[in-house]
């Protein structure tokens, strides 16, 4: 009798999960696609969100407003993806050009992690501060700065993609640079005084 009761509960959970996915899938997919640049990333996020839904039901976690909960989970996954891509762009993308025309990467400008524990600490602090400073920027400024400085995309390309004028994009980047310069000056002063 107890086994029959458990099977009935599982079947009821499965029915609720199925109904929720059917009801919310299209809206959730559109929400994610608008915010994730890559279609495969969007699909991965959608699957992660539904996996968390199933897990929450299986662990008997109460979810009062399932629709709102799904969008909150999706927003969190999108932010996780954005942070991951930002870290990858910071470590992989060109950040400038040397005097002899060679592309410089953030890796080239930061102290080497093999130079010892003190230098490794300085490096980690610099990366954390840069990440935090980028997070403080308004979204429009952050996106332009990352696209131009870290991903190496041209203003002309960004203007065509966003529909914004080159001057608007230049202005947004200018304000981003001012903020980053001011924000990172304190950490620079701290390390150069010591």
Any overview of this molecule?
The protein is 79% helix and 4% strand. By secondary structure, it is mainly α. A hairpin with a 5-residue loop joins β1 and β2 (103-105).
How would you sum up this structure in a few lines?
With 194 residues, the chain is mainly alpha-helical. Helices cover 79% and strands 4% of the residues. A two-stranded antiparallel sheet has the order 1-2.
Topology:
Blueprint: H1 2-35, H2 39-58, H3 66-92, E1 94-97, E2 103-105, H4 106-109, H5 117-136, H6 139-150, H7 155-162, H8 166-193
Antiparallel strand pairs: 1-2
Helix pairs in contact: 1-2, 1-3, 2-3, 5-8, 6-8
Keywords:
single chain; 194 residues; mainly alpha; two-stranded antiparallel ribbon; 8 helices
